[in-house]
Amino acid sequence: MTTDRMLQFVQTEKAMPEKRGADARKEDFDEIYDAFSEAAATMQASRCSQCGVPFCQTNCPLHNNIPDWLMLTAEGRMQEAWEVSSATNTFPEICGRICPQDRLCEGNCVLEKGFESVTIGAVEKHITETAFENGWVKPPLPREERAESVGIIGAGPAGLAAADLLRRRGYQVEIYDRYDRVGGLLIYGIPGFKLEKHVVERREKLLRDAGVRFTMNCDIGTDITFSAIREKHDAVLISTGVYKARDLKAEGDDLGGIIPALDYLTASNRLGMGDKLTSAEQKTYSATGRNVVVIGGGDTAMDCVRTAIRQDAASVTCLYRRDRANMPGSVREVMNAEEEGVVFEWLTQPDGFDGDSEVAAVRCSKIHLGQPDATGRRVPEPIEGSGYAKPADMVIKALGFDPEDIPSMFAEPRLKVSRWGTIAIDWKSMMTSVDGVFAAGDIVRGASLVVWAVRDGRDAAERIDAWLKHKASGADKIAS
Ligand code: FAD
Ligand code: SF4
Ligand code: SF4
Asked: Of 4, 120, 242, 380, whose CB is crowded by the most CB atoms within 10 A?
């Protein structure tokens, strides 16, 4: 499909969309990247060398047909670009904004070595935003209705991606969620400066317009039993994510002012969406004027430090026990945080907390990276005598998440889990150990990425469709 518009990487330099200056973006929670203009998107897309074996595509969890939609964009054939892009990705405008592209598609673009990668994510976002502007994105309405219903527990990206595909195939879809808003971590975890909320709400509306039903403020296991959900629906998908915050056991960890990351981010997101916080919540979750220390080095930690900056903290420091090169968070996010004034103390671990009733300092040690362990990562070892106290009156723990005990919560002991507590599935059928119950997203993989949740949700929908059609055909009865 190569045309003479392509292969412009030699004469055209890589350019991301304009990024707002750090001083301006610290003043609000709006996204920091502007949209590409038509001309910029065309020019950047034309840098692609249309590889015969496109490593960008192999390393995209959705195996998006990247070279084709880049070429169509370069030729100005935007509606076709949208059709190709949306054929494999339910939420391309969301992935284009928040995928860690430096570790996925762009990090594996052949141009990365020598010429810098094609700006794949930004072009993907541009294609879908153009489609929305032109009214090409329609509710996922079915061609014909089917009688069977599917109950989905969890309105995060995995559940929503599954709902979109199942509804297109005609199923009656009902989503249950314990939150009051649709979107899971897209709404209550990820801050607006990475993903503005209207982008998620626009997708919710399309699903509602297509007839997907939402039952919100409904905690399965408390408000409705899991067995009632099973009785009501022909198939059930569990896409509940992972929410048990990993804790840090250290002296003084019960002092006031030490808070879990997701509680902090949820409060900030709620405030941004116009909710009122109680005065106790305001006191706990406001970083204004405080010396904030965030412990951790992943995406969640990066979101916390940058939220604290926007709340006008007196200082914001990120403590991470490995170095910059071994940080799990996206390189781009670390760079954005540094530009905004966050200080990183690498190779540093917290040993305990000082204070009377409220935290006043974090006791820290410096770290040396030792020999690699079984996972290949070098083991952090504290350096003797390196201890010091870092003043802090707010400490945010961002150490990752584990799954809740779903079999107990759902009173369903037959639901098998892995040794990490995630729900065990047969990867071919995506079914759990309970007949007709499927699972997808973080609750299966452990804390992962939005793009993987979308992939799993789509795959689960395909398998549920096949299973229900097989059942409807009576093949089960014939076989027995
Ligand atoms: P979730 O998004 O967690 O959704 C699960 C839903 O299930 C929730 O709405 C929850 O309320 C509901 N639920 C749970 N239990 C019940 C129950 N018993 N009854 C009813 N409802 C229930 N990924 C990226 O790709 N890029 C990023 O930049 C990024 N940043 C992140 C920042 C933060 C702070 C966090 C925490 C995660 C981030 N991630 C990021 C990871 C990403 O958000 C997740 O991998 C993704 O949201 C998982 O999707 P999911 O649908 O499996 O679960
Ligand atoms: Fe890259 Fe994510 Fe888009 Fe795939 S979905 S092409 S990994 S930005
Ligand atoms: Fe184009 Fe880079 Fe993908 Fe090759 S690897 S097809 S140059 S985006």
From this structure: 120
Determine the distance from the C-alpha atom of residue 175 to the mean position of all C-alpha atoms in its chain, rounded to a whole number.
19
Q: Which of 133, 167, 197 is the last residue of a domain?
A: 133
Whether 111 lines ligand 3, by a CB cut-off of 6 Å, is yes
Residue 16: what pLDDT? 82
Q: Look up the domain containing 154 and give its range.
A: 149-242+403-472
CA 79, chain centre distance (Å):
27
What pairs with residue 258 in β-bridges? Answer: 395
Nearest CA to 72 among 13, 18, 126? 126
Residue 280 and residue 338 share a domain? yes
Task: For residue 457, give every residue at least 6 positions away whose Cβ sits within 8 Å of its Cβ, in sequence order, or none.
Answer: 90, 157, 158, 159, 160, 161, 162, 163, 165, 239, 440, 441
State the closest ligand 2 atom to the C-alpha of 89, by its place in the atom list counted from 1.
5
Choose the final residue of a domain: 90, 107, 133: 133
**Does 123 lie in the same domain as 34?**
yes
Q: Note whether 393 and 257 are same-domain residues.
A: yes
The pLDDT of residue 144 is 95
What's the pLDDT tens digit per position in 106-152? 999 988 776 688 999 999 999 999 999 999 999 999 999 999 999 99
Query: Which pair of structure tokens corresponds to residue 255?
Result: 């002092």
In this predicted model, what pLDDT tens digit does every residue of 247-280 receive, in sequence order?
A: 988 999 999 999 999 999 999 999 999 999 999 8
Q: Which of 89, 188, 190 to mutate to test the pocket of ligand 1 (most atoms within 8 A of CB)?
A: 190
Q: What is the mean pLDDT of residues 393-407?
A: 96
> Which ranges of 134-285 would DSSP assign to H, the alpha helix?
157-168, 185-188, 197-209, 226-232, 261-272, 279-285
Residues 469, 480: Cα–Cα separation, whole Å = 17
